[in-house]
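Figure S4 source data
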Amino acid sequence: MIFIYSLHFFVFSIIFILLWNVESSYQHTLLLSIMALLMLVAFILLKLEHKNLRKLRYQLKLAEDSDQFSRSLLQDLPVGLVLMRLDGKVVELNIAYANLIGRTPEEIRQLDYWEITPKGYAEIEQEQMQKLLKTGRFEPFEKEYLHKMGHLIPVRVQGLIIEQNGERFIWESVEDVTLQKRSEEALRQAKQIAESANLSKSQFIANMSHELRTPLNAIIGYSEMLKEDADDLELPKFVEDLYKILGSARHLLGLINDVLDISKIEAGKMEIYNEIFDVDSMLEEVISTVQPLMTKNHCILVTEFEVGLGKIYSDLTKVRQMLLNLLSNAAKFTNEGKVTLSIYRQIEENNDWLVIKISDEGIGMTSEQLKKLFQPFVQADASTTRKYGGTGLGLVITKRFVEMLRGTIQVESNFGHGSCFTIRLPAHLPETLPLEEKIKTIVEATPEEQQIVLVIDDDQSVREMLQNYIHKLGYRVALAANGDEGLRLARKLKPAAITLDAVMPGMDGWMVLSALKTDPQLAEIPVIMATMFDEETQGYSLGATDYLIKPISQEQLRLTLSKYQISNQTQQRVMVVEDDHITRGMMEIMLTRAGWQVCSAENGRRALENLEKYEQNQETMPSLILLDLMMPELDGFQVVDRLHHHPTWQSIPVIVLTAKDITLEDRIRLKNGVQNIFQKGAYKRDSLLAEIREQLSRISS
């Protein structure tokens, strides 16, 4: 700018000198014009310069205002900001950082880094410094600052390296996380309280399962015995009433089991107990169990599967319960219709699947009702509960079981035209190693010790089927295709039992039965009639011991034949160990009626004392112990352990009869000393008696 003014002054001076010495008017005029032009240019330049100066002043003011705004913004931020050297010396900071540790900015600039940060964080700080020098930044991490008042402040810190004038600084942002930590602590305490409450609920449910199932077990047991007495006394009115009591008790038990199951599932307490089992046998048992309900609702059960589905490795109890739930549901909502059970194996992507389809011709569901499906305590429609009853838990439990077994379940339904449920289960669960196929351990009888069952039936396929079933149950089997051959083999073999078809060409079953009962050598042989027709009264009047209607399942045969395989039964003694006196009395009556001697003990300690007394006095020792698990003083687990380690008592077979929910851990504890486990209320009396007979017969043999 000074240069321009100097140039103008120099030019004007030259022009003035020239004008002073010039005499020509033309030259005078030219020089004056040039001088005027230069003055005009100078004037314009001065104006432009003045404008540029104003603009520069404005820009400088804007820069100053922006810098002031940035400084104010940084100071007003709620997040602490600090600029420090690599040695930890603070260069600059904002008010939030100063307030965080309760000091003034001037105080902080004078402090050493370790007067702000506890030395317990030295190792963590060193790790963060190494990351910072290597990458130029470090990710957020949590630490604590030391407040001026002495308490610790939890913070989250992140930072990066910046350079200024060739020097490196650490720029950190610091966030106070005190409220977050308080919230986390509150959540932790709430979670702890919830878990404690859940544990209390689980313990309550476990106690309730025992308290509810134990009296129900007595109700069901006494009802069954009274019903038999009423049958023997030909009191049909009492039989009808007792049948209603028995049905209501079993229904109540089913509801209780559903509630307990869903509670265990939600609490994560439901366990998987995998075992290798035969699908065909499982299906026979399920079909025989659900058939009475189908008959009651006038439904036709159609089965579509081939014999020989083989074995799978899964949870037998849960698979069976899923099938029973779906079939019972189908029967409940189908009146005078058809229910179809279809099962097949499928190989898909090198995986073996068991596919189960259950379809019905029932009331079906709308799209809105399908949305509510599989929800606990919810049925598709409110009126459904009033009309059909139930808790709405069957399908929920089924779905949860399917998921636990790594399977899938789908449903298709058309309102007014029925529903179809499809379950896909892996045939093998690879996650866990197989346990024992069954908890009970039985020594197989030699062929010479096995009892003979004579099958008399004119149908070859029926003979072969019964032969296969009975052979698997541990018997030797003799076959006869007609009545004459049957009588000849009966006189020759003196079988332990005879199954007899009623309708045969030539000499029919009734004629064979009469011939057997009039022969003194054969009259005591139990004869089980097996026929397509319901002629039970005629069979019993002619001396038949049992009456089965075809088709006959292996389970029906097992229960029936097991009644007649024991020799010297009346000489055998069964000990009942049960703390509930009502249940104990019911078991004593049931076992006495079955033909055994019975002794009892009110708890585990008394049971062991009685065993010692029998041994010392050389009295008859129990041949079998029927044992409860939940007892005062000495529980069933402790009794099993004492028996297992006793040199003479360890050979006594033990059958557990309990209301406790048996866990996998319980099974492992019991597997070396227990032959079988029955759930109170849920077992069938004939199944329990058959198991006792089976164990005692093996002792006899």
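Figure S5 source data
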Amino acid sequence: MVAIRSLTAILTYIIGLCGTIPLFPWLTMFPRVILVAGLISGLWQDRRGIWPMKPWMQNVVIVPIFIYYAIQFSRSNPIQPVISVLAIMLAVRLSGEKNVRHSLQIFALSIFCLASSSLFDLSPIFLIYLGLLLFIVALALVLLTFQNQELAMTVSMPDLKRILFSALLMPLLAVPLLLFFFPIMPRTQLPLWNFLNPPVAGASGYSDMVEPGSHSSIGESRTLAFRAEMPSQAQNQLYWRGTVFNRTDGVKWTRIAQIPAERPEIVGHKVTQVIYPEPSDSHTLIALDRPVAISLQRVKRSPDGVFEVIGSAGRRVSYSADSLSNSLVAQRNPIDKPFYLQLPDQLPARIKTLGSEVSQAGKDDRSKVEFLENYFRNGNYRYSTVDLPTGDRVIEQFIFEKKQGHCEFFASSFALLLRTAGVPCRLVGGYLGGEYNQIGGYYIVTDDKAHVWVEANIDGSGWERIDPSSFATNAGDLWKSPGSRSLKLRITMALDAFNHVWNRSVIVYDFEQQIKIANHVGSRLQGVTPAKILRSFAPYVAGVFLLAGLLLAVRRASLFSSREQRILSRFLRMVEREFDIISGKGGAGLFEIASATANSHVIDFVAIYAGAVYHDRSLTDDEYLRLRQILRLMRGTGSKTS
């Protein structure tokens, strides 16, 4: 026999864990400690069956904590106090006695805690916890109704199975409704909590400035920046354009939005991508270099090939981009050379001297660029993210002394020398490379792929992409092909593909997609006639009738009957086969069968079965197993077979 109260207590703890585990990483230390302490305290007291802390004591403890976090609540800090109070209230309830009322409070608080975790991360894991929580809550609610009738109620295992099966039907029946309402329920373009909570997921991988020398070392982050659905490309073509930096003070490069008008003439192989960026504060839209069109509402396009979203950032979006893969962009009109030749008032003497050498070495822009490329290629420069130059002389140190740095050092130094030599240029910030997921058909680009390169305006040709980092002695590491696909990598890619499908189908699903679905359905319905409807639904109607017939046949076969009925039917069939005795309507009863056969196995079966069923109780597991054993022993013992 199983005690309903014990089972309900176990489910209550599981519900509490489902609600708090996703939220736990986002809590501060104090709520974490209280939550763990409350869980351990509750388990210890439930095991002993003694609860020294009364409910009114718990309420007294909660009041000052609520006041403390209420004082901390503000427009700049609205989320953390609320989730802290929810977690602490749940911990207090878990530490106390689990009567029906308190169990219901734990269920509600657990659901609120799980919902709060979606303010920070709405991943497929959230859906798993939500589904698990809803199923367990449905089971627990049914058990609580029995506990409310009798605190010490116990049930047999067969009865418990029937109760749990009935309880699981409720959430299962709700699944079709969920699938039906998801695509049609109205929704906003922005998450409802967006105005309360700043985005916490996924930095963009690059900032709004290039400032080499700000740190002596750079840590590589594997945080996801974006995914791009597109055909696989050559690794050296994977330049993802973000923003353009056109002003420098000699070290730091920034972007001035009031740039001169340009009329680029872009030719090349067209590549279409669907980009799924991770939420960030950046308004810049990433696309394969060089993008010519991005399909997203309220987008600002600049002449230098930068696309920016207008309005608030931080929400999860997706957009389609068309790019012409070419490292050279011609101009239909002359550019504003003074704008792209701007230099700071003070430049180190050695940089001025080297710039003069570059200028004198070439008769035109092309030869100057080639001279500077050879200077970097033969200068023993190394690409590195550690032991970097710092201070006020970082560019000078990089060029003439340390000769090692990351892409910001290479691009900043190269562009500064080009401008000193009279070649217009600018920096481009974005990403380089990516890991192609063969399962999902998309590129995975992480923050460690953030990159900066140079665009130089070659007189008579146009803007040309130059990546000074490629002149480093160890540059092959930047363009190396992916290694062998191990089992671990394939599993990782499969999991990421699942995560991508979740984001694409659920998270990014918005009002625009609803309109597209509605328009598609409307266009399909225009050519629909009653005859077509009947022909379309005929197979489904036939399938429904076939399924109903099968269910009826199965039901008549007593598959859904109780085990008492099933084993009795087996017994009566065996009696008829072994002893030629007819039972049922107009036939012999159980005791008459036992008397007529005078068989010890038949007599034992009738005694056990009647002792349970005729006394209005179900068979125990031991009795049921004994009856099955008797049926096996009855084979071949009857008078008819002998």
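The two ends are 42 Å apart (CA to CA). The chain has three domains: 2-181, 224-487, 563-634.
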